[in-house]
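User: Can you help me understand a structure? I only have the sequence.
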Amino acid sequence: MTVEAATGSQVRPWHRVDVSRADAEDNGIWLVSDVTFDETAGSADLSLQRPLKSSPKKASQGTSTASATDTGSTDLGSPIDGSSYSDVPRPASWGARSVAGILSLYRNNRGGLGGHGIYNGCLWYAQEVAGYQHIGANPHVLWPMLPTSKRHASRAVVPGAVLLYRNSRVGHATVYLGGGRVLGTDMDENGRYTPGRWSIAPADACENSFGTLLGWYSP
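Assistant: Let's start by predicting it. Here is the structure, written out as tokens:
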């Protein structure tokens, strides 16, 4: 679906769109899985997918959010009030996994990915789940070796981007999901250090546990 850029800037991957005045089979509630912008045309393209556990009848009742446990759902709830992190639009040239794809991979592999242990696997997991190339031995090493054009020392982050942190050890890495939340290893849902656990938590709480934010980088 193509909309004006101003409208697209207000849409996030966990939102729902009620489509009307389209072909009969396309009308109804759709989940937003990704948002890309065409600066030349001044428009935004919304990638949509059907909620897997909804139906036209349920959608017509005006339900505005999906359960976070629905397979394929990108609903993480409302953005966290007071978060120091904010979302910025994903560039049209972004060549990595959508937030919907990230969440699907996480929800279907809660015990870990591809035989790689969760413990001390932050950078590998962040890059793998975000669809990034595997580069760098650890976050401390990776940050200075990235081209300056890819480094963004900012809390205004593209949902789906890899975040890097500095601490007294080797640093840390997570994936920003939007709305002030991150997906990371060795932490619980409150952002506290919990070895061997892979969770979604508030970005600020994660930073309090794992060190100073260096920034995020483009794929």
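Now, to help you interpret it: The chain has a mean pLDDT of 83. The longest strand covers residues 28-38. Let me know which part you'd like to focus on.
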